Amino acid sequence: MSKLAEHIRELPSCRNPAYRPAVTIDDEERAELAKKLGDADNYDLIQLREMVRTDPDNIEFRKAMVSGIASAEYAGIDSFSRKVCEWQDWDVPWTLVMAMARQTWDEVRHAQLATGVLESYGGKIGEYPDTLAGSPPPALREGVEQAAQAVGTGAQQSAGPPTGLLNDPVTSLSMVNVSLEGSALTLFKETSKLGAKIGDELLERCFDYNWADEVTHTAIGDYFVKLLCEDNPAAERKALLAHAMFEYGRGRLDQDQSEELKEFFAEEQQRAQAALGGGAAHNH
Amino acid sequence: MTTVVRIDLGPCINCSLCRLACPTECIHYFSTGQRTHVVDPSGCIGCDICVRVCPVDCIDEDPDYLIDPEQLEQAKGKARVFAKRRHDVKVARRERAVVAAGAVAHA
């Protein structure tokens, strides 16, 4: 690993004002959130969209909704810029590293857009807690990688040596570019439509712009996953597993877990059991 | 007349929006064993929801497929269940939003 990549890896994510993840807020701040949003649990991007639709005159609802999106954009800058440094040491096409650089630039513009919309409401970054808060600090990062390895046991048995979520381009691209950015398409489309509905032209246009960029991010991810999985069915399976893990974790589009996803995980479990000698995958 | 759809895999970017929006869950991805979104025409009711959500316009009508009326009725039944589930989620969110707006207004 190059000195730069090593240095970046050890650096915790930071922003000014500092990240304040929503999952870490205390009771006092939850009570403050509840005063503004009716219930602290309403601090959820889909729910907030519905609240803005219901009461467009409530500026706090709009500020909270755009704050949540802005958090994700700042986290995106952090995430993709780390990849530009770290992936230079990996066995990946240089065009992929360039694509990550381009995406970093896109995320910067998205953060500017979201910040601008927020400021148009009289809000500012850091006023609401962060829905996403950069890369985990080094100590937690190891834990995330171990967890990813444990969840992905079935696919990794057939795809060669175990690799963690953050150390494998196929898994990362499939989970972040294709699946996460794919789901962002819905977020931006719906937010833009909401802007049109309530007569908020800035909201409408800014998130329509974001939407167009997300299409290219998803396409970039899909292109490189295809390239890296060429003639490698095991790697392709790993990409599918990463995509399924994301959908399972996020419950995309409010749907119940689809029948197909259930079948996929059942099949994965069978593969894991077979690879571990039958029955060993049971955890009593 | 109902016409089923098919996906042009060339421009498809696997964003999954069509699959997740399909009311009959007839667009397959994980079960194909490959990273490709494929429409099972026997489950398609020709509602065109997938066509509308596709960001790269790679879904089109498949005029060559002949629909079995019995299969179509079954698929429509599945779509009604899906629509009811979606509607219930939407209503729940809306009711919660109304409660929130009311609570904040009276605070």
Task: Describe the secondary-structure layout.
The complex is a heterodimer of chains A (284) and B (107).
Chain A: H1 3-10, H2 27-37, H3 45-54, H4 59-86, H5 94-120, H6 138-151, H7 153-158, H8 169-198, H9 201-228, H10 233-250, H11 259-275
Chain B: E1 5-7, H1 17-21, E2 27-28, E3 38-39, H2 49-53, E4 59-61, H3 69-105
Antiparallel strand pairs in B: 1-4, 2-3
Q: Report the count of strand segments of chain B.
A: 4
Domain module count of chain A: 1
Class by SSE composition of chain B: mainly alpha
Which regions of chain A contain 5 or more consecutive residues with pLDDT less than 50? 152-163, 280-284
CATH architecture of chain B: 2-Layer Sandwich
Identify the biggest protein-protein contact and residues per side: A-B, 48 and 35 residues
For the biggest sheet of chain B, the summary is: 2 strands, antiparallel
| Estimated share of beta-strand residues of chain B | 5-15%
Termini separation of chain B comes to 55 Å
According to DSSP, the number of beta strands of chain A is: 0
Question: Which term fits the overall shape of chain B?
Answer: elongated
Polypeptide structure, described:
The complex is a heterodimer of chains A (284) and B (107). Chain A is 69% helix and 0% strand. By secondary structure, chain A is mainly alpha-helical. Chain B has a single domain (2-106), classed as Alpha-Beta Plaits (2-Layer Sandwich), CATH 3.30.70.20. Chain B has 3 helices and 4 strands, in the order E-H-E-E-H-E-H. Chain B has a two-stranded antiparallel sheet with strand order 1-4. A two-stranded antiparallel ribbon of chain B has the order 2-3. The chains are: A mainly alpha (284), B mainly alpha (107). The interface between A and B is large, with 48 and 35 residues.
